[in-house]
Structure formats: structure tokens, C-alpha cells
Design goal:
heterotrimer, A alpha/beta, B mainly alpha, C mainly alpha, A: alpha/beta, Rossmann fold, four-stranded antiparallel sheet, 13 helices, B: mainly alpha, MetI-like fold, 2 domains, about 75% helix, about 0% strand
């Protein structure tokens, strides 16, 4: 197993109270596999990514749990070792390339820095290697682009440059946090193609995080659905999309025109909005928005249990049905 | 709102509230109760202690002495009214959660949590009160020159809290009268600067085009001058008395405000809600005024606090150089100047007025900082820090 | 780059013209005529009206105001600010003697400002949420608020009068002429120590505060998280990734701090008997020596414009996002 997250809990300690963005999550990612993490915005997906790298900003932190990467618990690693994992073991790309690229350094330098840090190349070699990486990301005129500053590139190019930086350390796991959300539709397709292509080439695992179930379904072998800091359903992507169990997952699928068109149910969204993480409903946090909810759901949060082969679900009503 | 339906409670606490602080004590708000009681006792003590001056003030033609006595009465009335209202509020909201969620409530709470800012505001209020009450408080006539030989350069003591100067005048009395000059000049000059700046900026933004262009180029020129040089030049041109000095300070310090207000109005003009409001037929200036006030209020408050400090400092600087308020009228600046040549033997002459000045400036700066943190910290940080 | 500088210079021409114009008209706001002021000290003695008329002619005051204005502009363009009422010498010479002293003082104060301000600001930001940060933040607010002239007097009282560590005033010791080159240099620094400290410390406090907030802002940016996620050392993240971004706007702040420094220098120079522009101006205001007041005020404003220009050019040089073709609008 490449990555094993066990009972991860991360919180922000604010003046207004404790905000549990990740509240007891466990999952695995195997080498070379693509795993998707889906949920509406504000449900803690990004914090899962930052927890794995132990980079949650103040006033938040990982409170408990284990993050085993190649058998070592990242949360208990000495800082020097952890630095080697960041970049060389696990790479990450963010939603806004414009914000994640340092505005005052040339693209080539930002890539070469990573290469020098993790692969120990000399300055000159690192630069030519950086140009190669840019070329591998499908950037035309890589030598010229390497000398550009981020503000001189288009949105899609910036995204490719950011992926290039993440790939420069040859990570075994790439975390892609909303990799296409900020982009135009056509560019979105290009970037997801690029991700698939580099996965083939470099044989790494991808943890793809998005609110866009379509994108995740398109890319991931397995998919996990997250709601208010907890996983509510995990399954192989095909099964999850074909036979969703949790009412929330069903709602997400029902909200997608293309995927929902085949079923008898008309296109529909989920009523209500994601609750404030500071002021969560009791029991199953989804119950105020759930069509199946009854009094039982308001008492205790349902545990994530096996509901079918390689298919887990956290819902009392589903357990009763099967 | 939610409290309107609460049935008016009549309880013995209401009566107790007439003695300031007692109601709070009975309700368990000991800290506030003790503070209110101390405040009212101090006020009453002042009235009794200086009864003659308090009463005589009303039969003199001096406006400032009259004001001082009125102020004392207002202080007493104010503390009674406040404790009455506050006790009522505490009773009505007993048991309810008192955490308001409106931006103002949040800002107020954040401000109150900043202890330094709260102390600063206490000090500022205290100094302004001392300045107003100077005719009642001062032990000596600030201008009286007694037997010079026997009284000159007395060090601080019970008789002369801050010592005496080269003419044997009581420095404590002079410092209080100096506070009146310095503090009022600071406040008035700030108001003038902010008013002119706001009007000027609004006119520029309202008319736009060439008018805006010309007006803002004038601001550019004005801002290019080091402010203190402009002030020096103007006090060189005009004979400085208090009124002229207020005008000079106010007239040199407005361009920053003008630039800010203009920018604020222009950005409002371009915002979507202005468009939509105009679409439903609201006149533009009405929309701008209505939205300008909340969006510009917090920066204006913060810069106003800083501007008062700046004005007081500038007045003190000019007076120190002998170009502002001239002796025998005391101002903190010229009092420091009077002591500058005798630091070795009579350090107190320069130390105390300068110390009060410094304390005032620090208080305003901490107050501004507290306001900035309390009101919209993020947006302000980018613009002004 | 050169094109940008030239463009920027041309843009400041109207500003300079405005400054020169403003100085002229403010000076003419005076009730009465400058000659009255000039004659005031001698009023006790009966002055022959013919002499007054002669003086008027000599200073060009018999001309209509627009002619005077054109003459003023012409003369300023030639660097001629007329003759001092008091000193009976060309203003240009008097000011030229004073400017280097002011520049020594302000440039050293700027250095002190930058050195302490930036480093303390960085420490404060890196140690955010600690006692040290709180102390530095509040301390800088307090130092910023202390009026310079009072601080100067208190320091003189402590270090010069009581301890005798620094001179109370003047630019050089009595035995200056006998000193070696190095000795002269050290003697000058010794005399500069207190005034530079008083002048620079308030600015340092302001810079520290600004630097802290800027760095904290930058540390919150996503590219900092991204840099950490790439495995860089925290030191590298702060020094290489955060600091450069945080320092860029500081350049502009320095351009803007020049007018405050020049203003502050007036009082500090007077206190320390430092023969710079500030002391000259204060003395001229006291003596109603208009030609000098007009000259120093104009020059102070021109120095400010120059400072802003330098700041803008430096900004363009250090920030890759500024293109030289379009002048930056603020």
C-alpha cells in the first residue's frame, strides 16, 4: 500500500469555536492507482490533502490519526525526513495556478529549484532538465516558456507549469486538488488528458480531489464521497456511479445532467446547502437535507460500513435496505 | 426587536440604579459597579472640593469656566443615566446570549478585547476631561507670577506636582491649560482636514473628467511638499495665533483624505450594485452616499485618530520651534521648549509637558491600531498599514 | 529601462512646475508686501522712503505680480533663488552649504530605518503569536508615536548631559582640524549618532510594522504553501519565496517616507544645531527671510519628487510584473 490514512482528524481552533474540517477519515491509495475524493465545496476536501502533507495553516492542525506513506507515519516523521517526502514522495497541484506560482521567479527557476533540491543536480543541468519537464507537460517552446514569469502565461499554461513543478520531484503520489476548476471547459479536458498521460508515463498514483463528480468519475479507479469532514460512501467508480447507495451520492449524481440522464429520475439537485462546519447538525450531518431521514438519523452519526463488495456506505437507511 | 415583547419588569433594581453602580453590584457585575461608583464619587468630590469655583463660574463672564462647571454637572447626570440604562439592559438580556452578530457588535467586541486600545481611550477621555475641567482643577493660576526668586525652578512636590518654571509658575496648572490648547487644536484641525478632504474628493469624483483631472493634479502638487515644510512656510507668512494655527494645520493635511475618498467613490461608481440600483431609478449620488458611509467609515475613523495625533504633534513641533503658540499662552510644545536649556538643573520643566504629549500621541496611535484591528482588519491592512 | 526613466522624468515636469508655482503664490499670500517684513526690524530707525523704494526695485517687488511670477520661474530654472534678506548673500550659496548636511542626516536615518525596520519586521512576522512579536508590535507603535523633539531632549539629557557619551549638538569637535581623515570621519559619525537615531527610529518603527504585515500577508499566500509542499526548508521558504515578494512594496514606502524625514529633520536639526536645510528654514521662518523659505521649501518638494521617482524606478527594476512601457498609476 502506497498511502494509508487512518482515522485522520484535523481541526481549526478559531475564536468562534473548534472547526473539525476532517473528522475521522480512513482510506488507502495503492501504487499507480487513481483515487477520487468528491464533495461540495466547504466539506474539508482540501484539508485532507493538506493534512497528508502536514501543511495545515494556523490556527489549524492535524489532531490525531496516522498517515502511512510507504509504511512510515508522516505525522511522526522528523522534519528533515518529511521535507524529502514533500515534493519527492508526494507532489501536489492546486486549484489556482496563478496563486500557487511565485510571481517573482521565472517558471524554469521554480522547476529547477525542485530538481536541485530533490535530485541533487547542478544549476545548469537542473535548468535543462526543467526545460525537458516543461516539454513533457506539452508546453510549446519550452525553452522560451522556462524564461517566462508566471504572469506572462495563459491560464492553461500556468496549470501545466504547476504540474511540471510537482512532477519535477518525480513523486510517487500526485495530489491534484481541483486541478481543472479554475479553467475554461476546453482547457479542462486538456489538463485531465495531461494528467492521465503523465500517470501512464511516470506510473504514479493520483489522488484527485474535486467537487466535480464528472471529472472524478472520468479519471478515478475508486471514488470516495465526503460530506462535512467525513466519508459517506466509497466504492469502485463504476459501481459508485452506477449504483450509488448514500442519498447524498445519489443527490450528487442526480445533479449531473449527463450522468443522470439515463435514469428515470428527473434532473434534481440536493435541497439546502452544506451546513456551517462550526454549527453542524446532530447525528448524521446530512439528515436535514436527506429525503430518507427520520429520528434515528438525528442521534448518532452513522459509521462507514461495508455495504457490498468493495463498497462502503455510512447511512442507517441503506443498511436497513440491504 | 426580540426584546420588545419582553414585559417591562419593575424590580427594586431600578431604584438602586439611581445610585450609580449599586444596581450593577446587586446584579453581580462587580467590576463595572465599582468603576461607576468610583467615577461618581470622584465627580461629587470635585464639586464639593472646588465648590466655590464651581458655583462662581456661573457668575463670571468667562466661557471656559462656565463650560467646566456645566461639564461637571453633565458628568454626574451622564453617569446616572448610563447606569440606569445599563442596569435595565442587563436585566432584560439576563439569560439571553449577548453575542451580537452584526458587524458593529463584532467590531465592538474585538475592540474591547484589545486592552491597550481600551486603556488608550480611557486616557484620551481623561485628558480631554482634565482639559475642560482645568479652571476647576488647577491649584494655581497658570499665568500668575508669584515671588519669582522664592518660587522659580522648584522641583516636583506636593505643592507643585510638576514643579515650577523659571518664572515660578506652577507647571501642573500650566500643563492642564496647555492640554486645552494642544488637544483642541488637534481635534479641530483634524475635523477641518477631514471635511475639506471629503468635500474635495467627492467633488473630484462626482464631476470626473477635466475637473477631476485638474483637482487631482493640485493634490499631487500639494502632496509633493513635505507637510511640515508647508506648515513652516504658512506660519512664516501668517502671524500664528490659535485660530490661524488650526487653519494652517487643517489646510495642509487634507489631500490624503481627498485622494482616499475620491478613490472610494470611483470604485463604488463602478460596482455592480450601483448599476443595478440606478437601473431601478435611484439617483447615483444617493446610492454612493448610502454605500460610501459604511465602506469609508472604518478607514476614516482610523485615519482620524491618527490625524489627531499628527496634528497635536505638528502643533507641538511648531510651538517648540517658537513658531506656533507663543508664550505666555501655554501649549505642551512651547512648555518643552522653555525647559530645553535647563535640562541639567530643572529636568521637570521639559519632561512633564513632553511626557503628557507623548502619552497622548501613544494613546491615539494605540487607539487607531485597536480600531483598525476591530473594524474590517483584512481590507484595511492592505490599504493603510 | 532608460526609456522608462525618461518617460517618468517627463511626467514629473508638470509636477515640478506646480511646486514652483505653489511656493510663489503661498509666499505672496502674506498680508502686505514682503518688504514690510524686511523692514520690520529696522522700523525703529526712520527709513527713508526712497531707500524702501530702492529696495523694492532691487527685489523686483515694484513689478506686477505676473511679471514677478515669470521672473521667479525663470530664476528657479537657472537655480537662482535671489538674495537672502538677512544674510545679504545669494540664497543659492546658503542652501548649497546646508543641503549636504541634511542629506547626511536623512540618508543615514534611512539606513537605520531600513536596517532595524526590516529585520525587526521579519523577526516579528516569523515569530507571530509569540510574546516577542506582541512586544515588538506594541513597542513599534509606541516608538512611532513619541514626538521626536521630546525624545531628542530626553536623550540629550541622558546621554549627553548626564553620561557625557555623545555631544549635545554641533557637527564637529573643537579639535576637528587636528584630526586625521579617519578621526574626522569618526568625529562626524559621533556627532551624527543621536540626531540620526532620533530621526530614524520612528521610521524604523513604521517600517517594522509594515514589513511584519506585508510578510504575514505573503506567508498566507498559496505559493508559500506550495513552496512548503515542494519540500523546501522553512528558511528557504521565508528568505527566498516570501521575503522577495514582501520587500518589493517596501521600496515604494521608502519613496514616500522622504517627506516625513525632511519634515522631521527641521526640528531635529534645530535641536542639535545641525546646519542643514531644516535649521536654515526654521531660522528663516523666524526671521521672515522669504527668499530662503521659498528656496528650501521648493527644494524639499523637489527632493520628494526625486525620491518617488527613484522608488518607482527601483520598483520597476525589482518587480518583473511592471512593464516599462506603461507608467504605473497609483
Amino acid at each position: 500500500m502506497l498511502l494509508s490514512v487512518r482515522d485522520l482528524r484535523s481541526a481549526f481552533f478559531l475564536d468562534e469555536g473548534e472547526l473539525w474540517a476532517v473528522d475521522g477519515i480512513s482510506f488507502d491509495v495503492e501504487a499507480g492507482e487513481t483515487v477520487g475524493l468528491v464533495g461540495e465545496s466547504g466539506c474539508g476536501k482540501t484539508i485532507v490533502a493538506l493534512s497528508i502533507l502536514d501543511l495545515i495553516p494556523h490556527p489549524g492542525r492535524v489532531v490525531s490519526g496516522r498517515v502511512l506513506f510507504e509504511g512510515r507515519d508522516l505525522l511522526r516523521l522528523p522534519p528533515e525526513e518529511m521535507r524529502k517526502v514533500r515534493g519527492a514522495g508526494i507532489g501536489i497541484i492546486f486549484q489556482e495556478a496563478a496563486a500557487a506560482l511565485n510571481p517573482v521567479y521565472r517558471i524554469g527557476n521554480q522547476i529547477a529549484d525542485v530538481i536541485r533540491l530533490h535530485r541533487g543536480l547542478a544549476r545548469r543541468d537542473a535548468w535543462s532538465e526543467a526545460v525537458k519537464v516543461l516539454a513533457a507537460m506539452g508546453i510549446p517552446e519550452p525553452e522560451k516558456r522556462a524564461r517566462s514569469y508566471p504572469f506572462e502565461l495563459s491560464g492553461g499554461m500556468k496549470q501545466r507549469a504547476m504540474i511540471a513543478i510537482a512532477m519535477a520531484g518525480r513523486p510517487k503520489l500526485l495530489i491534484a486538488d481541483e486541478p481543472t476548476t479554475a479553467l475554461d471547459l476546453t482547457v479542462q479536458a486538456e489538463i485531465s488528458d495531461l494528467l492521465r498521460q503523465i500517470q501512464d508515463e511516470y506510473r504514479m498514483a493520483i489522488l484527485i480531489i474535486s467537487h466535480d463528480l464528472e471529472l472524478v468519475a472520468d479519471m478515478a479507479d475508486r471514488t470516495m464521497v465526503m460530506y462535512t469532514g467525513r466519508l459517506v460512501e466509497t466504492a469502485d467508480t463504476k459501481e459508485l456511479v452506477g449504483e450509488p447507495m448514500h442519498p447524498y451520492t445519489q443527490g450528487l449524481i442526480g445533479a449531473i445532467p449527463v450522468l443522470g440522464a439515463g435514469s428515470e429520475t428527473p434532473l434534481q439537485g440536493i435541497p439546502g446547502a452544506v451546513p456551517d462546519l462550526l454549527d453542524l447538525p446532530s447525528g448524521c450531518t446530512f439528515h436535514p437535507r436527506c429525503r430518507l431521514a427520520d429520528d434515528e438519523c438525528k442521534l448518532e452519526p452513522p459509521p462507514l460500513e461495508d455495504a457490498a463488495h468493495r463498497h462502503q456506505c455510512a447511512c442507517y437507511k441503506v443498511r436497513v435496505q440491504t | 426587536m426580540r426584546r420588545e415583547n419582553a414585559e417591562p419588569r419593575r424590580s427594586p433594581h431600578r431604584l438602586r440604579a439611581f445610585v450609580p453602580g449599586l444596581g450593577h453590584l446587586a446584579l453581580g457585575h462587580t467590576g463595572r459597579g465599582v468603576r461607576l461608583m468610583l467615577f461618581s464619587v470622584a465627580t461629587i468630590f470635585l464639586v464639593v472640593w472646588r465648590w466655590d469655583r464651581f458655583i462662581d463660574a456661573f457668575s463670571t463672564p468667562f466661557l471656559d469656566r462656565w463650560l467646566a462647571s456645566i461639564f461637571l454637572i453633565l458628568m454626574l447626570a451622564g453617569v446616572i443615566w448610563y447606569s440606569l440604562r445599563d442596569v435595565g439592559r442587563i436585566q432584560q438580556s439576563a439569560g439571553e446570549e449577548r453575542r451580537g452578530k452584526s458587524p458593529w457588535a463584532v467590531a465592538m467586541r474585538r475592540f474591547r478585547e484589545n486592552r491597550l486600545a481600551v486603556y488608550s481611550i480611557y486616557i484620551i477621555i481623561l485628558f480631554y476631561a482634565l482639559a475642560i475641567l482645568a479652571p476647576i482643577l488647577t491649584p494655581y493660576d497658570p499665568a500668575a507670577i508669584p515671588d519669582v526668586m522664592a518660587n522659580r525652578y522648584l522641583p516636583p512636590s506636593g505643592d507643585h506636582l510638576f514643579g515650577t518654571d523659571e518664572f515660578g509658575r506652577d507647571l501642573f496648572s500650566r500643563a492642564l491649560y496647555g492640554a486645552r490648547v494642544s488637544l483642541s487644536i488637534g481635534l479641530l484641525a483634524m475635523i477641518i482636514a477631514k471635511t475639506i478632504g471629503t468635500l474635495y474628493g467627492s467633488v473630484a469624483a462626482y464631476f470626473g473628467g477635466t475637473v477631476d483631472n485638474v483637482l487631482m493634479r493640485i493634490v499631487d502638487v500639494w502632496i509633493a511638499f513635505p507637510t511640515f515644510y508647508l506648515m513652516l512656510m504658512l506660519v512664516g507668512v501668517f502671524e500664528a495665533n490659535i485660530v490661524v494655527l488650526v487653519l494652517i494645520l487643517g489646510l495642509t493635511a487634507w489631500p490624503g483624505t481627498a485622494r482616499f475618498i475620491r478613490g472610494e467613490i470611483l470604485s463604488l461608481k463602478n460596482q455592480a450594485f450601483t448599476e443595478s440600483a440606478r437601473a431601478i431609478g435611484l439617483p447615483a449620488h444617493l446610492i454612493i452616499v448610502r454605500h460610501l458611509i459604511p465602506s469609508a467609515l472604518s478607514p476614516v475613523l482610523v485615519t482620524a485618530a491618527l490625524a489627531v495625533a499628527g496634528m497635536i504633534g505638528a502643533e507641538a513641533g511648531l510651538s517648540y520651534l517658537g513658531l506656533g503658540i507663543r508664550p505666555p499662552t501655554p501649549s505642551w510644545g512651547n512648555m518643552v521648549a522653555a525647559g530645553k536649556d535647563n535640562l541639567l538643573n530643572a529636568w521637570w520643566v521639559a519632561f512633564f509637558p513632553g511626557g503628557l504629549l507623548t502619552l497622548t500621541l501613544i494613546s491615539f496611535s494605540l487607539l487607531a491600531d485597536g480600531l483598525r484591528d476591530a473594524l474590517d482588519p483584512k481590507a484595511l491592512m492592505q490599504k493603510y498599514v | 529601462m532608460l526609456k522608462y526613466i525618461i518617460k517618468r522624468l517627463l511626467l514629473s515636469v508638470p509636477l515640478v512646475l506646480g511646486i514652483v508655482t505653489a511656493t510663489f503664490f503661498i509666499a505672496r499670500l502674506a498680508p502686505g508686501d514682503p518688504m514690510d517684513m524686511y523692514l520690520e526690524p529696522q522700523r525703529q530707525r526712520q527709513v527713508d522712503p526712497e531707500v524702501i523704494e530702492l529696495m523694492r526695485k532691487r527685489y523686483g517687488l515694484d513689478q506686477p505680480i505676473h511679471v514677478q511670477y515669470v521672473t521667479w520661474i525663470k530664476n528657479v530654472a537657472r537655480g537662482d533663488f535671489g538674495e537672502s534678506f538677512r544674510h545679504r548673500r545669494p540664497v543659492r550659496d546658503i542652501v548649497a552649504e546646508a543641503v549636504p548636511y541634511t542629506l547626511q542626516l536623512t540618508i543615514l536615518a534611512l539606513l537605520l530605518d531600513a536596517l532595524f525596520g526590516i529585520s525587526l519586521g521579519i523577526i516579528s512576522a516569523v515569530k507571530q503569536y509569540t510574546k516577542l512579536d506582541k512586544t515588538l508590535t506594541v513597542g513599534s507603535l509606541i516608538v512611532y508615536a513619541i514626538p521626536g523633539f521630546w525624545l531628542a531632549l530626553m536623550l540629550i539629557m541622558l546621554f549627553s548631559v548626564n553620561l557625557g557619551w555623545f555631544p549635545t549638538s554641533q557637527t564637529r569637535s573643537m579639535n576637528y582640524e587636528d584630526l586625521t581623515m579617519i578621526g574626522k570621519f569618526l568625529d562626524r559619525l559621533w556627532h551624527l549618532a543621536l540626531p540620526v537615531f532620533v530621526l530614524g527610529i520612528a521610521g524604523a518603527a513604521g517600517t517594522a510594522r509594515y514589513m511584519r504585515n506585508r510578510l504575514l500577508e505573503v506567508l498566507n499566500e498559496e505559493y508559500i504553501v506550495a513552496a512548503r509542499a515542494r519540500g523546501f526548508r522553512e528558511r528557504t521558504v521565508i528568505v527566498k519565496h516570501a521575503l522577495r515578494n514582501a520587500l518589493i512594496p517596501i521600496v515604494t514606502i521608502y519613496g514616500m517616507s522622504l517627506p516625513f524625514l525632511l519634515g522631521g529633520a527641521t526640528i531635529i536639526e534645530t535641536i542639535f544645531a545641525w546646519p542643514g536645510m531644516g535649521r536654515l528654514t526654521v531660522a528663516a521662518v523666524g526671521g521672515r527671510d522669504y527668499p530662503i523659505i521659498m528656496a528650501t521649501t521648493t527644494i524639499a518638494a523637489l527632493l520628494t519628487v526625486l525620491g518617488n521617482l527613484l522608488a518607482d524606478v527601483t520598483y520597476a527594476a525589482v518587480d518583473p510584473r511592471v512593464s516599462y512601457d506603461a507608467p504605473r498609476k497609483r
